[in-house]
């Protein structure tokens, strides 16, 4: 057991940092980051940035060579993710492509789908959005109502999705739709957003612009070949995809960065002498460090091919506890952070308003760990 | 980064678990006490070299031993002898059991003092290594699940050996040790309670079937799991920041573990016959040590932010280097 990095991993991290230094524009932190990674500006920037990353072999290094990767191990992928997160996630929505959309297509896609999508994702120029949640089906995803009716030679999709980040700029949508009457009789479809019958509407909210969109499907005709995996296999596919999404975002890294930023603002103002504030900051830092190690454990298990029961869920629970404490800390000790005083901290705060909801609510994570990790009985 | 135990580490853990298992029963006559110190086990661990693994193998292995020892219901002093002492005394071995005491609070009751043969006393800058005279210690009854005692007469520190400028070093490893002990105790307490809530039925269902119980049990499990890795990381890295983080995390979550697990044990949990207190009230004891959560949190803040340099001037955190890279 050891908690350090190998020489190769250190070199790789330096390589990633050097690439970021070179590729990010001088006004990245002042102009782009505060707009948030779902903003139109960042999404468009990601098409340029990710294409450059791809040229340098830094977009999908963990993918197999045949799909544009370099067969790198899970640690390299994770180091890349940590550094991107620390830089304000300049990959924008494309972090989803490399973390879970690509790997899911790799696992469940037809040869044609792999050919069509994987090299496109690996080129860094394509934007995807995730069509899972609906107005009446969020945490209870199996309650979704969007229906894909099998008409023999095609499907006809009707329904709507909501909270669909990036939808107004996306090229493709990873859509989950009902194909049978049973609760979990659902299927996944890979749809171009230009398909006739798809309409996107944005609406305002507490989190940053670009995250809150509604996508309507009205008699959307899609070929059978757009279905990912077998009909009715959607639940298995989405479970697989979400297990990657849950650990894909290094929340502790962004949290510690935000905490450092807040403290350093206080220091610059000579207001870092309050022991109560210091104590609270120390407590929060310790929580983020715990979340970091639980996340590393998930990656380590993947490297060692240890079956993941619920460790990915556990690290999300740990990170959320720290994130919530930090949000409270920011409002108390950097009180102008939500009133124009610090665009980066405001972005951090607002993005994390739904931190306990997105990607599966915290309660769902707790349920999953209780049952899969601790062997507790199903609910009453 | 490799969070799997090596074969040697797994063998070490398996071996100590076997010894601990064979000596973890509390005698019938002591079942209603707030703790049980197993002197025979203490001798066995000493004579079989388990308290010397910190010198033979390193602090990570010593932390693994301390964690395992903290999981059993009986008390044996492991963490200070195996994890703290080698860092201050090097190859020199002094007779144990050992304790760490704060020089500012010598008059109060101390954990493990009635069984101790040597004490490492934190004097601020320096450390005193003091042989403990058992005739100068009176036991103090406590709900905390360790033997507690206080000096009858103030110990004579002038004659004690001084370890110059070792105060920071002592506090550093004291925190690693208390984090390791807390990790073992928390893991055992969670496992014990988990078994209880699965067996015990209320309103026609196992207690474990209720969602509110499940969620809080998971949170306790998360704390115990985190603590295990934080303690081991602190032992591996030897960094003060990691030690302070591990202790801070342990001490800030004691309330959560103690309150929730006793809640799920119900009225059974307030009896000494029900063993839960043997772990939860160790955690309460450890919560008070090395300055408690306030000082550990302040030290985390000091380690992380109190540099004279401004934020922008600070280099990015340097990743720890593995043995392979060294």
Shape of chain A: globular
Distance separating the two termini of chain B: 13 Å
What is the number of E strands of chain B?
A: 9
**Main sheet of chain A?**
4 strands, mixed
What's the assembly state of these chains?
heterodimer
Measured on Cα atoms, how large is the radius of gyration of chain A?
21 Å
Count of DSSP-assigned helices of chain B: 11
Give your account of this protein's structure.
- The complex is a heterodimer of chains A (380) and B (326).
- With 380 residues, chain A is of the alpha+beta class.
- Chain A is 49% helix and 13% strand.
- Chain A has twelve helices and eight strands.
- Chain A has helices spanning 7-23, 28-32, 40-55, 74-86, 94-108, 111-123, 234-248, 251-268, 275-303, 311-333, 343-351, 362-373, and strands spanning 128-131, 147-150, 154-162, 172-178, 186-192, 198-202, 213-223, 227-228.
- In chain A, the strands form two sheets. In chain A, strands 1-4-5-8 form a four-stranded mixed β-sheet, with helices on one face. Chain A has a four-stranded antiparallel β-sheet with strand order 2-3-7-6, with no helix packed on it.
- In chain A, strand 4 (172-178) and strand 5 (186-192) form a beta hairpin.
- The longest helix of chain A is centred in the last third of the chain and has 29 residues, at 275-303.
- Chain A is globular.
- Chain B is of the alpha+beta class and 326 residues long.
- Chain B contains eleven helices and nine strands.
- Chain B has helices spanning 7-22, 39-47, 53-56, 59-71, 79-89, 167-199, 211-237, 240-252, 254-265, 277-287, 292-305, and strands spanning 98-102, 110-111, 118-122, 127-131, 137-139, 148-151, 161-163, 201-202, 205-206.
- In chain B, a hairpin with an 8-residue loop joins strand 5 and strand 6.
- In chain B, helix 6 (167-199) runs parallel beside helix 9, helix 8 packs antiparallel against helix 11 and helix 9 (254-265) runs antiparallel to helix 10.
- Mean pLDDT of chain B is 93; it is low at 307-319.
- Classes of the chains: A alpha+beta (380), B alpha+beta (326).
- At the A-B interface, helix 1, helix 8, helix 9, helix 10 and helix 12 of A face helix 6, strand 9, helix 7, helix 8 and helix 11 of B.
